[in-house]
Amino acid sequence: MSDYRYPYKDVLFALNHVANIGRLNDLVDEPLSQDLLEAILTESAKLSEQIIAPLNWSGDQQGAELREGEVYEAEGFKEAFRSYVEGGWASLSGDEVYGGQGLPSTLATAVNEGIQSANLAFSLCPLLSNGAIEALEKYGSQLLKDTYLEKLVSGEWTGTMNLTEPNAGSDLAAIRTKATPHEDHFLIQGQKIFITWGDHQMSENIVHLVLARLPDAPEGVKGISLFVVPKFLVDENGALGRRNDVSVASLEHKMGIHASPTCVMAFGETSGAVGYLVGEPNQGLKAMFAMMNNARQGVGLQGLAIAERAYQQALEYAQERVQGYDSSRKNRVAIVAHPDVKRMLMTMKSLIDASRLLIYVAAVENDVSKLAVGDQAKTAAELTALYTPVVKGWITEIAQEVTSLAVQVHGGMGFIEETGVAQHARDARILPIYEGTNGIQAIDLIGRKLLGDNASAMATLINQIVADVHASQSKYSEAVLSEVALFKQTTTVCLESMKENSTLGTYNAYPYMMQFGYVLGAWLMLKAQAETALEGESASNEERLRCASIDFYCQQILPRARLFGSMIENGTEDVDVSIFKQ
Q1: How many CB atoms lie within 10 A of CB 75?
Q2: 113, 397, 435, 483: which one is catalytic?
């Protein structure tokens, strides 16, 4: 089991040379200096490496526990969370009006990469809080903002998202939780499942955001409203009052992320849980998507983070495990010297590098969409909308491959839990599922993003990619342009197929999302190549590895884009569901 090391130089390179975080300085009153950026990443690395990472294995083994209606997290988590809050990490990008530090969310993303790599289960708690903050900032009344945001931003209170019910998973139209008007609030009654960090002892209060139906609500998704339902009620002075009618019915026993309590939540089993409407009645989906978009970008970051952690462990093992001989058959060598192991390590590294570049390009674009005005903000928002399903979908699929390869590099030892690498594969498996399955991300990409503007934003992005690839003058430019041309064709195919027959068109969604991801990765790797100049013996190991990673991606990974493009061009017939009967 290896120690985690924050990939400081890789993150800085992505931020400065590809994502161009400096763009944000033109949009803020107080520019982010390079010294401050580096200082924040250095200090956050200490938190991740020294305080949070050591709890990853023990937390997985111990898990969370439900005792007498209260959830207790694994040992050390409460103290680590206190360090996280007291260090100001929770409030890094929070609104200064509510006690935040007002730094770009891209910087918080870079900090969160380390926390998520260090301990994925731990990191889920602040991730859900960020979603709650965003929903309240956009749609909450001033009273709700004044009551809850300062404590949420500081991390003293945490937040959750309560969407799923036993009969309402991806289909939110089936939600049955009820909200009944009562005096100046609502009484919430119903059950929610799969609620991440639904209860714990790490914060004084937990602010649940709950989807429910009003008595006169229309059927389907147009009749869903969003409510704040705190664990403890808050009086007019901001002090905590009595316990709300909210309880944990049970904890789920999961494949991975054992230290993250996944709760079955019961609202209003006695008298009704006190809740407060967020936004307008029956407009809960708008607020929910504010939470979900934040969470989806965060889950993509989790994919990168767990992949990085798995790669580090696999690399260390490969360098230490001695098996076989060199070509002379005289000297025994570590397995890192064997071609197939090098192939696996380079596959992992190149996919991680491409994923990281996409994460930070998308993060900067998201910040621009919020900080800029006019056409600049509009363009950035359109790009963010295109990137989000790929960040969540493609990168979390990459995480499955990378964590599986990490097990494979370990050989038989990878299948033994005590080695620790199996945990990464188990933890990563949830990523393509929660916060909207990857199938739903793909359908969102072609059904909303392409159809929504007749692929106008995608056409603009493709033109930018083509221009950048030409400008790079890379030896891989021709190969990348060939894949971009095919992607342009499949974009037209997907658009037309959705217009003609959305059922058949939806079959193209997943391969299109994957093709898009590999094309974006190639584009960004060429941008990275243009910023990496090897100068003979003076080149650092990081630069040499980066160049090798770019080479490997363009030679061995990029051809996957053509595979997925061919699947779309070949098309498919609708499958009669009756053939699955047994």
Answers
A1: 12
A2: 435
H helices within 250-409, ranges in order? 284-320, 339-371, 374-409
CA dihedral 86, 87, 92, 94 (to 10 degrees): 10
In a domain, residue 548? The reply is: yes
pLDDT classification of 536: cutoffs 50, 70, 90:
low
Do the domain assignments include residue 528? yes
Please report the sign of the dihedral spanned by the C-alpha atoms of residue 295, residue 299, residue 302, residue 304. Answer: negative
Structure tokens at 121: 């289960």
Cα–Cα distance measured from residue 175 to residue 177, given in angstroms and rounded to the nearest whole number: 6
The two three-digit tokens of residue 386, written as one number: 């295109």
CA-based radius of gyration for the chain? 24
Asked if 417 is an active-site residue, the reply is no
With CA atoms as reference, report the closest residue to 49 among 18, 24, 83, 20: 83
Q: What is the pTM of this model?
A: 0.96
Report d(CA 188, CA 177) in Å as an integer.
Answer: 7
Mean pLDDT score of the chain, rounded to an integer? 95
285-289, 338-342, 525-529: least confidently modelled range? 285-289
What distance in Å separates the CA atoms of residue 451 and residue 498, rounded to the nearest whole number? Answer: 8
Both tokens of 216, joined, read 């006169």
The residue among 391, 400, 386 whose CA lies nearest residue 451 is 386
**In 3D, which of 549, 513, 514 has the Cα closest to residue 528?**
549
Residue 185 forms part of a structural domain? no
b/e map 370-388, b = 16+ CB within 10 Å: ebbeeeeeebbbbbbbbbb
Return left, alpha or beta for 536; rule: phi > 0 is left, psi -120 to 50 is alpha, else beta: left
Indicate if the alpha-carbon torsion angle 410, 115, 87, 105 is positive or negative.
Answer: positive
Q: How high is the pLDDT of residue 169? A: 76
What residue numbers bound the domain in which 441 lies?
437-572
The total of other beta-carbon atoms located within 10 Å of residue 218's CB is 11
Nearest to 164 by CA among 445, 434, 442, 448: 434
User: For strand 178-182 and strand 157-162, is the pairing parallel, antiparallel, or unpaired?
Assistant: unpaired
The DSSP string of 419-436 is GSHHHHHHHHTTTTTSSS
Q: Of 137, 44, 39, 32, which is closest to residue 89 (Cα–Cα)?
A: 44
Q: How many domains does the chain have?
A: 1
Residue that the structure tokens 């790599």 belong to: 117
Q: Which residue has the tokens 């197929």?
A: 497
433: tokens are: 């599922």
Strand 332-334 and strand 322-325: the pairing is antiparallel
Nearest to 238 by CA among 139, 98, 140, 86: 98
Q: Residue 336 gets which letter from DSSP? A: G
Q: What is the pLDDT of residues 151-175, one digit of tens each?
A: 999 999 999 999 999 988 777 878 9
How many angstroms from the chain centroid is the CA of residue 456?
Answer: 26
* Structural domain contains residue 52: no
| SS3 state at 99 | coil
Q: Are 259 and 200 in contact (CB under 8 A)?
A: no
- In 3-state terms the chain splits into helix, strand, coil percentages (rounded to 5) of 60, 15, 25
Q: What is the 3-state secondary structure (H, E, C) of 377-412?
A: HHHHHHHHHHHHHHHHHHHHHHHHHHHHHHHHHCHH
